Amino acid sequence: METPSILLRLKRRWIELWGIVFFIGVGINFAEIICRSVFHFSIDLMYDIPIWLTIWSVMMLAGPILPDGDHVSVDMVRDHLHGFPRKVCEIINCLATIAFGAVITWGGVVFTSQCYEFNMNIIRCISVPRWLVESCVPIGMFLFTIFAVYQLVTVVRTNYVKADRQTNNRRPHDSP
Question: CA separation (Å) from 160 to 72, 133, 151, 154, 174?
Answer without folding.
Answer: 21, 42, 15, 12, 27
